[in-house]
Amino acid sequence: MNPSPLMLAIVTDAFGGRGGMAQYNRDFLGALAETGAVSSITVLPRYAPDPFALPERIQQTPARPGRIGYSVAALQTALLRRVDLIFCGHLFMAPLAAVIARLKRAKLIVQTHGIEAWSRPSKAQRSALEAADLVLCVSRHTRAAVLSWAATAPERVLVVPDTVREAFTPGDGSTQRTRLGLEGKRILLTVGRMDSGERYKGQDCVIAAIPELVTKGHDIYYLVVGEGADRSRLEALAREAGLSNRVRFLGHVGLPTLVEIYRTSDLFVMPSTGEGFGVAFLEAMASGTPALGLGVAGATDALADGQLGTLVAENDLPCAVARLLAAPRPDTQALAAAVRARFGREKFAVSARAALNRLMQASSV
Amino acid sequence: MCGINGIFAYHSASSAPQETELLATREAMRARGPDGSGAWWSMDRRCGLGHRRLSIIDLSDRASQPMPSEDGCFVIAFNGEIYNYPQVRVELEADGARFRTTSDTEALLHLYAHYGAGMVRRLRGMFAFAIWDRARRGLFLARDPYGVKPLYTANDGWMFRFASQVKALLAGGHISRDPEPAGIVGFHLFGSLPEPFTLYRDIRALPAGHTQWVDAAGPREPEPFSNLADVLAKSAANPAPAAEIPERVRAGVLDSVRAHLLADVEVGIFLSAGVDSGALLGCMRDVGQREIRAITLAFEEFHGSSEDEAPLAARVCEHYGAHHIVRPLRKREFFEDLPAILEAMDQPSIDGVNTWFVSKAAKEAGLKVAISGLGGDELLAGYPSFLDVPRWHRRFGPFAAMPGAGFLARKVMAVVAPAFSRATPKALGVLEYSRSWAGTYLLRRGLFLPHELPEVMDADMAREGLRRLRPLHRLAANLKPDPGSDVARVCVLESAQYMRNQLLRDADWAGMAHSLEIRVPLVDFTLLRALAPVIPVLSPGAGKAALTNAPTLPLPDEIATRAKTGFSVPTGDWMNAAIGRGLEPAGRASDPKGLVSRRWSRAVLNSMAPTDAQPQLHAS
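Structure tokens for the assembled complex are given below, as produced in the milestone run.
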């Protein structure tokens, strides 16, 4: 293979996209471009609603939401240029990516994130993944799930975990606390999409735990950041529990506000059962706030088996919240540094580059 | 011979490995190395190696492991023996290497420093080892060409672990016990787990004759460095005349026996009344060992009958002036030991019981090392399969090549003659599997056939296991390049499947459970190379006849004559009785051996399988 290959990225979204997968794709492609691991990347997104700037060595074609239109455009783009590497950002698009890889005799990388890869996919998707030269997973849990249904060599399935953006650092968040009128209160925080189909982030568990904690003397207020169709159900839950004042739904907030909310919270809690990785845990801890999650799925990676944050069983959640609120706040700088030592952008770039090197070494054998 | 293990937190996101885990895994292998133990950590504590030692060469503490090189650049944990160590040492010293010990372990460190991964091509012996390379921040693993010594690995995406035993890895407490359908299906097909699969999805064997490199991006795919088929294919183009068989066998076996006697402790031998072990005993005497203790099992049931091997073995001992130890064995002892046997059995196996008891006897005699005749039938065409497989393939292969013929015949027979179908399930597979060499071998050697699996285990798991295992494809891969003759093809299939996954693995767990190193001079790559030119021209009985005459003083005639009719051991009946006491109803005493094995395999699997997988293992 060319030592500095040309890459085509088949993705749902990346630059100008929203959500965790788009962020991961930007991070991954950006790291490869920045380190010079590839000479150029052409990104083919299905969605790109937001304005964006592209890093050096990366181009992005206009978004094509329709599946057929996207497939035709992807084939056209691929056929018209040299392609050494295909990066497929979602398992659902792997069959298309595998066809293009075969046509172009290019190496195929398939990226897997979370629940989309946890149960056995369609035969076409499974075959496409098994044909991949390299499979990347955001967590050990996703990797184990992929290997449970894919007959692929385990050495081809690597973990490249999420990374945390530079914006999340310890510091002063008192403006947000004042704005919310929560001086002197104990703030719990969850940041995540409220999807009515998935319902796995666990905000309802936190809401259910609050009355007893308040009874025991914890003056708790719970901030819920994020949007989604499940929000009205959760709001009703809070109302029914008489917690309308203590549970605040803040919706989508901008990055500077989000950073301050993380900083000023006393505990980030996300009893999620469906995290592919759980980058919000990293954002909280990088902002100096301790984090609590369930020892389930990707959360065990983000919380580093309990070495960065706290992992508990669902039944123990209220006790763990009480215990962590009673404990002195940890050294925020040390916590942030520990997070970056494992999941900082430099480490991410090294992991991404090492994965690509592994692929290129394998093809040169 | 020892137990090795290690943990390498290769991913930057990973926590450092815990000492408690390293030691828990190591101590689960205590029986492999009762003479000493050691642990080593890299400066940053990202990599730890563990070792339990059975001292055989250089008994001093200087030879303890894990052993660092003098400059600290490399550290090794090694299980096995390097039989050409004296020559290797001379060559290395000529190149300027300085030795601190007289151990073969240190030679491996020097070899790695000089030749890197290519070092493995210079080794004669049985080995599994890991070397930490400080400058490259990586771990180099290797396993011998035949797979005499075991090496299992586990990789969770952040951390890499290895150990000599599957159960030791599990004892560390951090590896998932999720079942591997390919391993379970393989066990039903063959009676042992076909490498690289194990009972558990997250644990794999490093395949025989492979090396593996692990660095910051995790383990690379294992790379082969030797191939049985390749050796035989090269010789097939230029076969030697049959007249050369006796001399090649004599010279090759004597050379191998001489190499396998390298030790600083006494080397004994397992002696049956067969040709293989008897000839090895004669060769031991020829290469200069004066005091030889030989161990024979005497089954009480056979006492005074023609099946009793003890009198003939005694005759061989007398012939060669060896000291004979006859160990009586009764059914009762089998039942007493059965729980310990299942505990020591690292992975499910339908055999190994004989090896357990003969190893136990050797330990009682105070031996640490014993020679075994294992491998003679594979190397010298001693099994009936050397006749059956080519014959079946030629006779039925053309019919089987007709699309759908086998499937149709099987279905028709199941309706027309259901009793016959049940009693001789394999006969119905002839037209389905005899099309290829791999298929014919599976037919000859398989415990169950693939189409039977949905009836004996969960149908979904059977399907998924077959998809992951691809048994015919995997067997056929052993035959690349084509070994070039009927005998060579069966030799490769028997060596790479039955011997590697069943006999050698059984010898490892059953011997190691008694802290006994079992050496196998007939499983030796140098010997294979020496015999490769005559393997294509081995006619039935010619190989064993040559082996009979390999010692200067040939084996007594009655051994050669008696061996042709074969021996039996009562362990099959014992197993059948054990099944009746345990999980499944016993069969009839007159059941054919194959059907007993089938029931025994299911009983063993039930006793060892991951508990959460139990419902999926067998059809309800």
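Chain B touches chain A through 24 residues (CB under 8 Å). Residues 486-512 of chain B form the longest helix (27 residues). Further analysis is deferred to the final report.
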